[in-house]
Design a protein that fits this description.
elongated; 384 residues; alpha+beta; 15 helices; four-stranded mixed β-sheet; 41% helix; 7 strands; three-stranded antiparallel β-sheet
Length: 384
């Protein structure tokens, strides 16, 4: 059996001898053979178009495959080419992305399309280094696109691949630690078969997604189970080492469903969030966080004045919405509000607009605002 040149960290910080690791050539052969027979049938694997592969990789950032597929298809129907995306209005891009989450991805995708069109002649850079210079493209995404779309020998390391490597080579250190991350990237690069990087990276992704899952891995179906050091030491359910989660903060928020008067009768005032903010570019009901010792109604009145510069009379509660984001949770109290005085202006937002209720859905709105809008339907009489 040939010696494996790969080295990995032990839990006490040392390195094992080369003979302790599985044989590289065997691992490569078994993983690629498994992928040839068991690869997932995914829409972006039916193309070699770098644009479509790029779109898929951006959408797949922190989002599960099954969630991405319908969005991917819808997005490409709306923006079938890079040129079409670059020429599109950002509001249309965000609407197409609506409820997929992590909206900075959509804004960066749109921005990068313009950069590619004007600085790269409409063609994506072919190297990982060139791709990583684009807005919204990190180290993993650059490597994935370079290897899959352009056949470059670029190693990738996402959550699935990290889990496979940690178990296969029994990495007992914290996989999120900076030094361990560097060692895992080096390990992925050493394991990569020259000329087959695209398939190999995708094979490791699929292996992590379907076999080497976070809980209850299907070791009996794994093509490299005989070489897995974690399984050999009965640690497949313990590795990668769990990272202690910090408590998820909870915020109370009050917003206003502001009804217009005179020329704006029958309309509701919506505000567009600043582009560099969380949910940037999306439209929402004006409002904000409730301060300590402040009632929800008082907060709605204050926040509306600070955000759009008008005085409102706060009426009955229109909706109570609970929503969870990736790093925090919110409870939102929405109140029917009557515009009393002041001319609305965008102070703490990018734009404002009076809209008929049926027109609000034409804009890109956050999931929480969508829940508020849905709650208003039974009392539609108060909105007309």
């Amino acid at each position: 059996m040939a010696k494996n040149p790969l080295t990995i960290p032990r839990c006490h910080g040392g390195r094992p001898s080369p003979a302790m690791s599985p044989p590289v050539t065997t691992l490569r052969r078994r993983i690629l053979a498994w992928y040839a027979a068991a690869a997932r049938d995914l829409p972006w694997r039916a193309t070699r178009d770098p644009y479509r592969i790029w779109v898929s990789e951006i959408m797949l950032q922190q989002t599960q495959v099954d969630t991405v597929i319908p969005y991917y298809r819808r997005f490409l129907r709306a923006f079938p080419t890079l040129k079409a995306l670059a020429a599109a209005d950002i509001d249309d891009v965000l609407k197409c992305w609506e409820h997929l989450g992590y909206y900075a991805r959509a804004r960066n995708l749109h921005k990068a399309a313009g950069v590619i069109l004007h600085d790269h002649g409409g063609h994506l850079p072919m190297t990982a280094e060139g791709l990583a210079a684009l807005p919204g493209v990190g180290r993993y995404t650059a490597a994935a696109i370079a290897s899959i779309a352009f056949g470059q020998d670029a190693a990738a390391l996402d959550g699935n691949i990290r889990r496979v490597l940690c178990r296969l080579f029994r990495v007992q250190a914290n996989p999120r630690d900076g030094k361990t991350q560097q060692q895992l990237w080096a390990l992925a690069a050493d394991l990569l078969p020259s000329g087959q990087a695209g398939n190999f990276n995708q094979a490791l992704m699929d292996l992590g997604a379907t076999i080497c899952t976070p809980r209850s891995p299907r070791c009996a179906r794994c093509p490299v189970t005989l070489h897995c050091q974690a399984r050999l030491h009965k640690q497949q359910n313990e590795l990668p080492k769990a990272v202690k989660k910090t408590p998820v903060p909870h915020y109370r928020v009050a917003v206003g469903v502001i009804h217009g008067k005179a020329a704006n009768a029958g309309r509701i005032l919506m505000a567009k969030r600043k582009a560099d903010a969380l949910l940037g570019g999306l439209w929402e009901f004006p409002g904000g966080k409730i301060n300590r010792g402040e009632s929800a109604a008082e907060a709605a009145k204050r926040e509306i004045a600070e955000e759009i510069g008008i005085n409102v009379k706060v009426g009955e509660r229109a909706a109570l919405v609970r929503h969870a984001y990736s790093h925090f949770r919110v409870t939102i109290e929405a109140f029917h509000c009557k515009h009393v005085s002041g001319k609305p202006r965008a102070i703490a937002c990018d734009k404002i607009r009076w809209l008929r209720p049926q027109d609000i859905r034409r804009l890109a709105i956050p999931k929480a605002s969508d829940k508020i809008l849905a709650a208003l339907k039974p009392s539609a009489g108060s909105l007309q």
